[in-house]
Write a structure and sequence with these properties.
Elements (H helix, E strand, L loop, with lengths): L2 E2 L1 H6 L5 E4 L3 H6 L1 E2 L3 E2 L16 H10 L8 E4 L6 H12 L5 E4 L2 H5 L5 E2 L22 H6 L5 E4 L3 H5 L16 E2 L17 H10 L8 E3 L1
Parallel strand pairs: 1-6, 2-4, 2-5, 5-6, 8-9, 8-10
Antiparallel strand pairs: 3-7
Length: 218
């Protein structure tokens, strides 16, 4: 299970450390009671290429009182799901198995969970990452699997076509890659971080994907 809804979290609140990935301004205005602040726009997330380095990740979570074994629930504003998706993926890459996403973000928590404007007292901890293969590939790993995996390009159609560079030295896409626009995977209804499971399944089917396929996204 990756997603947890607000009612499930409310009923099991004492079991988790809650991480607020919104801006510090939003956090200070109101947040889920007991949540620690780790803004997605700051380290260890503010990067354009690949995951944050292991030392930055470990120190950032350790300052929040989080260890490698701490059960986590993360949330953002619920508008796009990108911040929580990135956190979840990087956490998995660094071996943090017990991490969940609050479906619908902070908006889904309102009226269901207690909120506060005060930051909790935190005792710093030592976070020890355990690198887990299979979540993130470097360029060499991608090249080694070219011809074996299906590459999904989740950028915009303009970037895929090469008409918009967005700072890249060259336009276009990896030969053979399939365009799979990222927005198709995120929420299209209030109270959700990601698209409905039936829609997700249909999106993947439309792309010709099966659960057994080896997929590399970029």
């Amino acid at each position: 299970m990756t997603l947890i809804n607000a009612k499930e979290l409310r009923d099991n609140l004492a079991q988790y450390t809650i991480v607020d990935l919104r801006s510090k301004r939003e956090y200070d205005t109101a947040h889920i009671l007991g949540a620690v602040s780790l803004p997605a726009g700051d380290a260890p997330f503010k990067t354009t290429i690949g995951p944050p380095d292991v030392a930055t990740w470990a120190s950032s979570l350790g300052r929040c009182g989080i260890t490698h074994d701490t059960p986590l629930v993360v949330y953002d504003d619920g508008a796009s799901g990108r911040a929580v998706a990135r956190f979840w993926y990087v956490a998995k890459y660094y071996g943090h198995s017990n991490v969940f996403i609050l479906n619908g973000g902070f908006g889904a928590a309102l009226g269901m969970l207690p909120t506060s404007t005060d930051a909790p007292q935190v005792t710093p901890a030592i976070y020890t990452p355990v690198l887990t293969l299979g979540y993130i590939l470097d360029l060499r790993g991608a090249m080694d699997n070219y011809g074996k995996a299906t590459f999904l390009d989740v950028r915009s159609p303009e970037e895929y076509a090469g008409t918009e560079l967005r700072g890249n030295p060259r336009g276009g896409h990896i030969p053979g890659a399939i365009l799979a626009v990222m927005d198709n995977f995120f929420a299209d209804a209030p109270g959700q971080s990601f698209a409905d499971p039936k829609k997700l399944a249909q999106t993947m089917a439309n792309l010709g994907m099966r659960k057994s396929d080896f997929i590399i996204t970029y």
